Structure formats: structure tokens, C-alpha cells
Amino acid sequence: MCLGLACGPRPITDEFILAKVSWEFDVTARCFVVRASAEGRAPRTTRPMLRGEAEELDVAIYRDDDPREVTLEALGFADEGCLEPTGERSEPQQASFVKRGSKSLVELKVAVPIAMGMDVDGDGAPTPADCDDGNPAVKPGLPEACGDTFDNDCDNTLDCADSDCPGKSCGVGVSCKGARCGEDACGNNIDDDLDGQVDCADQDCDLQSCGGGAGTCRFASDGGCQ
To answer: Residue 222 in contact with residue 198, Cβ under 8 Å?
Structure first.
């Protein structure tokens, strides 16, 4: 799934969804992302979108090899890097990819968190202690999952930016390299971290096994699997 108008090295197909993000007047978020989820796929998010003076934000979501239907949700964050969740979010909306020339518009309106003291998701942690009271995989005391795009432990940092995550898996073939998710499977001929560099051509793989006992990655102009 290619998220956003500029999607990097992955090919953009002619199937897309247009998400229109707006927010209630009392929403405090300065930054928004749209999270796309599909059965059997790890959730993915768009790049940070700054609120600025706009009344709404539009983002195109292109289909790669994902299922034709996805669930979209807009999330609000307090900082411009979209790292500190405010708990403000839209209702999840299902959407289907369509061909260019067709219309697939999904409106996502971000709202303020649910009233204090309620435990909507039934995980035993009421609002405001539960920073995402619509998701039982999020509450204080849970371990950070490191690659699911949720702030699982409600400490205002998520995934690889969380202090619990360096060195841990953040998805298939990737692990947390400091505050980011980087290549970890260096012999599968796949660009696991979607940075345009595959296996030993990715600096993340320097001095790591090329896989299958083939050798060790050497990241250099004349490098490779040696």
C-alpha cells in the first residue's frame, strides 16, 4: 500500500482512495496521519500532515498488492512530527480502491477524546489514562509492540521511538534501528523497510549475514554479499 501523494520508490498503481481529513472545532492536534488497515496486513500510516491554516487535508492512498478494501482512520498528534498522540481520532471508515477516473472519497472527521472515566474498549483502563479508548491493544502498562503504529503503553511515544523498542522487531524483515524501522533481513531480495535499497545495498545491512550462509554484507561502492 502506497500512502500519500509522494510514495517513494514503490510503484504507484492506478487504484486509489482519496481521504479527506477534517476536525472538530475543539480538536487541539497540530499534526495528523491517516492509518490504513487491512486483514492480514500490518497497519500503515501516511506521512505527517501539518494542520496549518487549512480547514481540511486531502491525501491519496494508492493500492499495491493489498486487498481491495481497507479501513481508514485519522489520528491527531500534539507535535509537528506526529509522535505525541493526543487521543483525538476519527471513526474508522471502510473504503474500496477504485481506478483512476472513478470516485472513492472517504471523509474522516477527527473528534476530541471520549469523556473522562469511560472504558469504551473494555480493557480495564478508563479515559484519560487510556490514551486510545477505542482500542484494547492500547493502555498503560502494556508492552510497546514496536511496529503496529499504536502507542500501546500510552507513554506518548510509539513504535521505534519508544525506549523499549531499539533492536526489537518492528515488522517482517525489519527491526528498530534507534528511532526508526530498518532493514533486518539482508538476503531475501526484498526492500523490507521500503527505502529503495535492497539487502546488502542497504546500509542497515552492513556486516549482517546475507542469509543462508552465503556470507556477510559489506556496504560500499564495491560491496555486496562477501
So the answer is: no
Predicted model pTM: 0.54
Measured distance CA(29)–CA(63) in Å, rounded: 28
Same domain, 160 and 174: no
Q: Is 97 found in the same domain as 7? A: yes
Phi and psi, residue 204, nearest 5°: -60, -25
Instruction: Note down the domain range covering 220.
Output: 170-225
How many structural domains compose the chain? 3
Residue with cell 477516473: 101
Residue 126 shares a structural domain with residue 210: no
Tell me the per-residue pLDDT of 77-105, one tens digit each, with 9 for 90 and over: 999 989 899 989 999 999 988 887 677 88
Strand-strand pairing, 31-38 and 85-89: unpaired
DSSP 216: B
146-185 burial, b at 16+ Cβ within 10 Å, e below that, comes to bbbbbbbbbebbbbbbbeebeebebbebbbbbeeebbbbb
Same domain, 153 and 182: no
Amino acid identity of 108? L
Instruction: Tell me if 149 sits within 8 A of 35, measured CB to CB.
Output: yes
